[in-house]
Amino acid sequence: MALDALIIWGCGLAAYRWYLGTAVHADIPARYKLAVLAASLVLLVCSRSIYRSWRVNELGVMLRSVISGWLWAVGLVLGWLFVTKSSSDLSRVWFVGWVVGTLVVLCLQRLAVYGGLHWLRSRGYNFKTVVLVGVGPTSEHVQQALAQSAWSGLRVLATLPPEALAPFLAAQQGKQPVDEVWLCLPVGDKEGIFATLDALRHSTANIRLVPDMFALKLINHGVSEVLGIPMLDLSASPITGKVRLMKAVQDRLLGALILLLISPLMLAIALAIKLTSRGPVLYQQLRHGWNGEEIWVYKFRSMVVHQETDFQVTQARRNDARITPLGAFLRRTSLDELPQFINVLQGRMSIVGPRPHAVAHNEHYKELVPGYMLRHKVKPGITGWAQVNGFRGETDTLDKMEKRVEYDLHYIENVSLWLDLKIIVATVFKGFVHKNAY
Description:
The protein is α/β, with parallel strands linked by helices and about 450 residues long. The protein has three domains: about 1-120, no CATH class; about 130-220, Rossmann fold, CATH 3.40.50; about 240-430, no CATH class. Helices cover about 50% and strands about 10% of the residues. It is built from 15 helices and ten strands. The chain has helices at about 1-20, 30-45, 60-85, 90-120, 135-145, 165-170, 190-200, 215-220, 240-275, 325-330, 340-345, 360-365, 385-390, 400-415, 415-430; strands at about 130-135, 155-160, 180-185, 205-210, 225, 230, 280-290, 295-300, 350, 380-385. It has a four-stranded parallel beta sheet with strand order 2-1-3-4, covered by helices on one side. Strands 5-6 form a two-stranded antiparallel ribbon. The longest helix is centred in the middle third of the chain and has 36 residues, at about 240-275. The radius of gyration is 26 Å and the shape is globular. The model has no long low-confidence stretch (mean pLDDT about 80).
């Protein structure tokens, strides 16, 4: 955090010297310092996802966090300058130079630290040892995750049943210390948990419980109070109360603004479709919305007009003969989705949420993917957490659909306006064009 603060201030000073010339040695005016201070405080205080252990964070995640956090900080500063009518007091050249320069240096700093840690670990330094207690699917899952994450600097020292832990710790004295002990035991295994904790009563290692997959799915939910009785929400919509109100306001205001801005582009696309192929401009498809209600979803028509047999809905495939040349471009750039902002203003969809699937696909996958229909506990969205993480396009295998649903459920369980805005920003940078968009 201290280094980030120095980078923000240093880049602000460098941008000011660069803007006015290297011969200028006057102090930076107070208004420039105030803008830099505001951005620093927002980034350091509000961006909790940025400042976490380097050991358990992937490089890509760290870079995305700092980029989105810095853009948010800059956006709030711009909003403050607009409200106070102070934007004209700052040089635009300086502001752009400072923002871009800071972002580049923040990312380079993380690349340097990550490279340094990787160099240390390749030579046997900066490792933490982990002992797994429990033999079964959970410990196997943990070992697999650690094996695929060598960058974490975590090394499994042993995998033991609870009764073998005490002899192992006794034999380990004077040798390599144990930094972490992870209990990969069922929550109901009281004897194993108590035996493990008793064996560790004199240990200074960090002790963590890795719940089994079934228990994890149960506890990863909200808690409601009904008639004074606390209840675990195994299946309940998180869009209630103030979250529902704020999300509705966000959708209406932001949706109307975006629709206004893209209306010339939509008119141009509509004209191009009409001139290049026979058929309607818009394509309507029946899909499931909030609480499973059937809704009509709009898209620009990207295929030749055709009739599906037996009410089936065939997913678009690579080099699909049904797709027109213009339609291929629209699908590749996701411009065919723009009419769905009309669905947002109608209240049928949200800007952010799980992507709606065809009714026929829902009927097919709801029996194959656990928790599939929980996607309909919120309004479907134009973009979503699964899409910005690469799970979009054709789901030609069950594994692809399972991963998409996993990310959709993660969004539902963690829904917030901040997460919505983060997804919108991520969509702008990487959500339109994708290798699976065809």
